[in-house]
């Protein structure tokens, strides 16, 4: 009887540990990318920021790379309403204290709207496969002079980027899990 108990107990430990150590990728470890061609890509990561129990927030990071070298990056935040049904992206402004003044200057039609860039997380089962950002490319092209782009390698900027036109993607696709 003790032998049967030991076998059952060990089997449950093995089963439990295989479930607990499954190769699932946590939100903070997910890397999303968008290939721009010619050796250029945008990578996107997000880190969960706990706030209220019925809403969610993430700090986000976009990075433009050419030949695997970081050229420029920008930070932002995603905030989601109750139960994560409606999410919006805010890109950091050039001046840290200008929450939406930069938006008012470059796209006046958004002057009274805080939630200017809707975010949709497209899932396959429980896994996020794509994240879409409503009209982010147009916004980033029109507001390049007002958003907080950090240029790390100016010599690798293309002609548009030298004119402060930085194109952020309207969507990114799950690529990998950080180790």
Written overview of the protein:
- The protein has 179 residues and is of the alpha+beta class.
- 20% of the residues lie in helices and 39% in strands.
- An eight-stranded antiparallel beta barrel has the order 1-2-3-4-5-6-7-9.
- Strand 6 (117-124) and strand 7 form a beta hairpin.
- The longest helix has 19 residues, at 2-20.
- The N and C termini lie far apart (43 Å).
- The relative contact order is 0.17.
- Mean pLDDT is 77; it is low at 1-23.
List keywords for this structure.
9 strands, alpha+beta, 8-stranded antiparallel beta barrel, globular, 179 residues
N-to-C series of helices and strands:
HEEEEEHEEHEHE
Q: What composes the largest sheet?
A: 8 strands, antiparallel, barrel
Strand order of the largest sheet: 1-2-3-4-5-6-7-9
Helix content: 10-25%
Described by the principal axes of the CA atoms, the overall outline is globular
Specify the structural class. alpha+beta
Strand content: 35-45%
From the alpha carbons, calculate the radius of gyration and give it in angstroms: 21 Å
- Mean pLDDT comes to 77
Alpha-carbon distance between the termini?
43 Å
Helical run tally: 4
Unreliable spans = 1-23
- The total beta strand count reads 9
SSE layout and pairings?
Elements (H helix, E strand, L loop, with lengths): L1 H19 L9 E8 L2 E10 L6 E11 L2 E12 L6 E5 L9 H6 L10 E8 L2 E7 L2 H7 L7 E2 L7 H4 L8 E7 L2
Antiparallel strand pairs: 1-2, 1-9, 2-3, 3-4, 4-5, 4-8, 5-6, 6-7, 7-9
